[in-house]
Amino acid sequence: MADTPLTAVAGIEATAAGSAWRRMRVWAAAHAIDDLYQGLVPASVPYFVLDRHYGYVAASGLTLAATLGGSLPQPLVGLLVDRRRVGWLAAAGVSLAGIGAGLAGVLPTYALSWLALLLSGVGVSMFHPAAGKAARRAAGDQAAAMSVFAAGGSVGFFLAPVLATPLLAAWGLAATAVFIPPAVLIGYVLLRAHQRQAAAPAGPVAVAGTDRWHPFLVLTGVEVIRSVVLFGVSTFIELYWIRHLHAGHTAAGAALACFMVGGVAGTLTGGRVADAIGAVRAVQAGTVLLVPMLVLLRLAPSSGTGLVAAVATGLALNIPFAVLVKLGQDYLPTRPGTASGVTLGLAVSAGGLCAPVWGAVADAHGIAAAFTVLCFVPLLSLVLVTFLPEP
Q1: DSSP labels for 165-229?
Q2: What's the pLDDT tens digit per position in 237-268?
Q3: pLDDT for 271-315, tens place per residue?
């Protein structure tokens, strides 16, 4: 009978762990749906070019609209999440993200589509800080558990071209409206969960540690550079396949899908690598691997070999993703909402601000030139990651 208390404690811990993983799966699913709409923007950009005859700069301006809405408000939302109980923001945010992105292809003018994507980005800004804070609370100190939440976002990016490309090819830009219902549904699920949590008695929340802003700013720089490459590749890889490799629309959609599949694998792999060798070393490993993978993608001689390079590039690019999210919250332990708003939102979305640059390069020198320049972007990260300390 002496072992009974220990057995009871073990049972309670196992039950709590199981509950935490169930909550993590819900947040991972919500993150997937939210980031589906971020992925829907680059997936639909080629059809704005082909169906409405927009130039590269105009089309990349649509990516810029979603980026502005998804980046600029995030630090303010993060501060709000850290100071107030506003868990309902996640539900409202994912719903707005889906409605805005879904309407963008239906609205008749460039200005209205641009505004719809701006509002969709604002929805993303509302979702990430609240969701990131809740997910870290469920994950505890495990990078692998946090990678499940982060991988949800990569899955959403992956599903966007897989689901959108055949619909857009068959129905045109109006097919974006099909993606509105999932946002409303998951928003309702999150809102009900928030209402149940708000009705329960609030327990004490312990906050320990000292905020370390210097390494957090370095980390933010690494994430911004990663985002620049992510948006550059995801926005133009389909057009690269069509106009440089002379592939069809299906093969071009497969290229984007392969890039996103590699991203999902990289996100999950990065969490496990971080638990094994340390968070900073995992970030450094992914950064070193990215440069040769981008070169391989640019030099791929055909669509078939390019698909392998697309998977490898997505893998290397996303190995640091979940690790950077966890590191950001480790560097700012008293401000998890702010850290999530920056690492999941502001820094990730900031890469879209450079989309018009790649569009201008492509307009002036061809789509291949844009990918050539992208190969040099990660070199700055190789320097920055050397200044990241282990938390």
Answers
A1: HHHHHHH-GGGGGGGHHHHHHHHHHHHHHHHHHHHSPPPP----S---HHHHHHHHHHHHHHHHH
A2: 888 888 888 888 888 888 888 888 898 888 88
A3: 788 888 888 999 999 999 999 999 999 998 888 888 999 999 999
